[in-house]
Predict the structure.
Amino acid sequence: QVQVVESGGGLVQAGGSLRLSCTVSGLTFGNNAMGWFRQAPGKEREGVSCIGWSGSIAYYTDSVRGRFTISRDNARKTLYLQMNSLKPEDTGRYYCAPDCASVEGGIFSSFGDWGQGTQVTVSS
């Protein structure tokens, strides 16, 4: 059973920064692309970023490109999302998931065992 545990969220003012972390168990972390997703109240979960298994290739949704940076530490089985210049529209619950892919139209994952996520709230 794959398990993901997200952490690092919080309440910040617009323009501030947060770093999210995700630890993974139950799979060979280094063999999988990993991604971050977020969901705002009343909205569908959307893909934010996806990083390839080696960490050399990364994708971002247009709204966060240039502000967010995804990275991974395969030895620690940990995924990170550095979030800078945060905006109120970044508010939502953030989740990580394996086996993401960037395709025309967005970033997606077929992962079903979603964790609890970590809440990010950006005040204006």
About this structure: The radius of gyration is 13 Å. Residues 93 and 119 are 4 Å apart (CA to CA).
